[in-house]
Amino acid sequence: MAIRILFLGPLGDLAARGEREVAGPLDWDGLLESVGPQVAAQLRDDRVHVACAGKVLADKTALLAQDGEEVALLPPVSGG
């Protein structure tokens, strides 16, 4: 099994893909390496959130995804 990384909104445009599969387990440093330098730079922004297994992480640097889980990269949301 693998971990599925979902690139949502403009992060998908930046990554030039909507999703990617990587081998687990996956921690914060592994995530930054897996997504490429442009997306990694965005992930360091406090306004960008990370969800693992359907739950938004309070501390995204504490990420520890296991095989079969999904990691979603959530860009900032603008309101009206």
UniProtKB/TrEMBL annotation:
<dbReference type="InterPro" id="IPR003749">
    <property type="entry name" value="ThiS/MoaD-like"/>
</dbReference>
<dbReference type="InterPro" id="IPR012675">
    <property type="entry name" value="Beta-grasp_dom_sf"/>
</dbReference>
<dbReference type="InterPro" id="IPR016155">
    <property type="entry name" value="Mopterin_synth/thiamin_S_b"/>
</dbReference>
<protein>
    <submittedName>
        <fullName>MoaD/ThiS family protein</fullName>
    </submittedName>
</protein>
<dbReference type="Pfam" id="PF02597">
    <property type="entry name" value="ThiS"/>
</dbReference>
